[in-house]
Amino acid sequence: MRHALAILAVVVGLGTFLGLGLTDAQADQADPRLKDLFEQLRTAPTPEAAAPVEAEIWTIWAKSGDSDLDQVLEVGSRAMAIGDVGTALKIFDVVVRKAPGFAEGWNKRATVHYMMGNYEASLADIDRTLELEPHHFGALAGLGLVNIELDRDEAALDAFERVLKVTPQSQSAKYNIEVVKQRIKDKSI
Question: What 8-state DSSP symbol labels residue 123?
Answer without folding.
Answer: H
